[in-house]
Amino acid sequence: MDYMHSIRNSKSENIRYGKKYCFLTLIFIQGIAIALLLINTTALAATVNPCPQGMAMISGGTFKMGSDNSSFVEERSPKDVTVTNFCIDKYEVVNSQFGEFVKATGYVTVAERPLSQEQFPDLPDEQRLPGSLVFEMAKPGVKQVSFLSWWHWTTGANWQHPFGTDSAIASKSNYPVVHIAYEDALAYAKWSGKSLPTEAQWEYAARGGLDGATYTWGNEYSEHRANTWQGIFPFFNTKADGHLGIAPVGSFAPNGYGLYDMTGNVWEWTTDFFQVGHDRKSHQINPIALNQSFDPKKPDESELHVIKGGSYLCAPNYCSRFRPAARESESPDTGTTHIGFRLVKNLASSTLPLMRNNNGITDQMALRKAISFALTG
Question: Which of 6, 100, 203, 302 is found 20 to 30 A from 362 (Cα to Cα)?
């Protein structure tokens, strides 16, 4: 009897021990799951980064696109939009990179071509010479100028000669390339095996994880966080940020995703046609506006694209578009001294685990693999 009693007690202890072990194992697994859900997206992306050199991996997620604190109607009202994983250039495309493209392909930009006689039949030949729009500050002593009078059509202005034939980029290899029309950016993108970002991708990346913040760095304007205009535009610039014109890429601190100059410096092209607001993109995944464009300020232009980020010409008293939500329309055949671009590389969802988005959702396959490894290894 004592022998049987001992066996029963032993079995009972084993059952209690087994239940306790199962309970502790469950707690352990749950702890791992919670920890994984709290892993920082950037750190996780760094361990599985399929992006080419010079690009940052952006983990997909849902964010508020647009702003409800803006006086610009085209930005309102914010809508929930989702993007999937993608890579994006850390810097704007620079002169040296564009020069490599031109050398390899012989490409001639829009600004380097004569104006089409078919498109501009009333212009004499001398006015159809290659050129582009160049910014010129108001003359000293002038107290009032007419709207947009600071832009001048300049013969010979192009990406190699930003301010006309007497200017050059020999010492500015790491400055953003400018005088880039939309088709120029597309040609470079095709050559490099990348693409222009959608407006949703661009804005999501620009926010750097600060969903709803006014600027790429937070909610308070700082003249030292981006290359913008300090002073009264277009009369004088105090250069409080250290730059009168375009700055070399990387001159200012990056945003939370490690991206530089997402606001200020130069405007950047996106693939989207311009439409007021974001109603058509609400609750969409990877939305893009491709069917038509309309800007009530430019009713006669029908193929306007969205440009983002503002430029070194944006001042608090004029433009004020050095914000992720800010947007402007631009004709695809127009290049200026303040428009450039950066590129993205889209990722298939099967190439890597989905990273944690703004709602804390992590790919379940990655989670199961991590738990399995913890239990067996």
Answer: 203
